[in-house]
Amino acid sequence: MKMKYLKISKVEGPLIILEGVKDAAYDEMVEIEVEGQSPKKGKVVQINRDKVIIQVFEGTTGVSLNNARVSFAGKPLEISLSKEVLGRVFNGIGEPTDGAPLYLGKKYDIHGRPMNPVARFYPRNFIQTGISTIDGLTTLIRGQKLPIFSGDGLPHNELAAQIVRQAKITESQEDNFAVVFAAMGIKHGEAEFFRKSFQQSGVLKKVVMYANLADDPIIERITTPRCALTAAEYLAFEENMHVLVIMTNITSYCEALREISASREEVPSRKGYPGYLYSDLATLYERAGMMKGKKGSITQIPILTMPNDDITHPVPDLTGYITEGQIILSRDLYQRDIYPPVNVLPSLSRLMKDGIGEGYTREDHPDVANQVFSAYSRVQDIRSLAQVIGEEELSDTDKKYLEFGKQFERQFVKQGYDENRNLERTLDLMWELLKILPKSELNRVKPEYIDKYMEAKDGK
């Protein structure tokens, strides 16, 4: 029998406090009936003996100590899932917002189940994004978690939309590929931008979108990525699909977590964030991967903005510990009209070395990537030297490196918002750029690759 509590002990901001509650559970869903209003949903966020603190999704406007009835559902938030979620748009708690009727499917707890480390399968195959700096130099591997570190005002939304439109796996498995997109704390205009971008490009049918808007309840922002990851787990491990999960903006999620923590009067840690921020982020990121005995996979690209472009800020700092590399966007490149403004040198993919080369991408990929990275790294040293002694005093070789750096940024890093480069084109472009340098400088590629991919193409 469901028990209703007729008297609230206290109302504080988005929280209501009940005393004398029996058998409540953490994260349990709650329904609040208020006179003259539609029922509100809430979630148990803290328990102290018989005292329970409930976070109300819709806020506590109109709720007083004596005009509300509170009943406990006896279970956490669950969402209905079936393969029909593909092509649909939902809010942060899994309710459809696209006007289409609600389907009936099996219900799943949004908190999922931890993936047993012993059952994990090491990722190998790559996902092509159509973006040269990612595919060529920070390759995304299926089952990996590879975040994008951005800053306020940088085009991370455009980059996210472009990845959703262009991401693909091998042609034979293309029909078995889906994208789950989770947006947290975005403006109405941004939500419409994402929806239209997916719709006009024709990829919406393979995308599941969960959107929490800036004026939606804070607690809903906490559930949005969990709803998205639960949908991804269903598609990957029950429908055997390869799923790419893109989550933006993780910083908005963490700020919501900080706000909720402050309202619960918890002891703050670095910059006011709760002390459990690391473990909370891990509950999201560690839901990526591949499992033995399962054909599907979950790959994550979390996107976060670094306040004041500070990479030591708690959000990017902790994210870097948990994930397997990072792609960093550069404000300097963006101001020079280079899109996408990926800063190649501090960016890396820790799983890249095991997912490229013969049998995965192309035999020359590891060598040419190392050579291009090494050359661009030297360009930075030469640019610094040129500022001291002047460009005219540089050696002929150094001047060629400067030309390489200029062309690398203008031809390789820079590409159109609608430009989708396949991996073959990306690797060929890297060889074209290496022609600028003297052959004696190409000490990281095998001579046979130079003959095959550089000189042989010239002969044609």
From TrEMBL:
Which positions fall inside the ATPase F1/V1/A1 complex alpha/beta subunit N-terminal domain? 8-73
Q: Which UniProt keywords apply?
A: ATP synthesis, Hydrogen ion transport, Ion transport, Transport
ATPase F1/V1/A1 complex alpha/beta subunit nucleotide-binding domain residues: 130-349
* Membrane-spanning parts: none
Q: What residue stretches are annotated with the ATP synthase A/B type C-terminal domain?
A: 354-453
Give the Pfam families listed for this entry: ATP-synt_ab, ATP-synt_ab_N, ATP-synt_VA_C
Matching entries from Gene3D superfamilies are given as: 3.40.50.12240
Q: Which PANTHER family match?
A: V-TYPE PROTON ATPASE SUBUNIT B
Q: Give the UniProt family note.
A: Belongs to the ATPase alpha/beta chains family.
Task: Describe its function.
Answer: Produces ATP from ADP in the presence of a proton gradient across the membrane. The V-type beta chain is a regulatory subunit.
Q: What is this protein called?
A: V-type ATP synthase beta chain
- The organism is Lutispora saccharofermentans
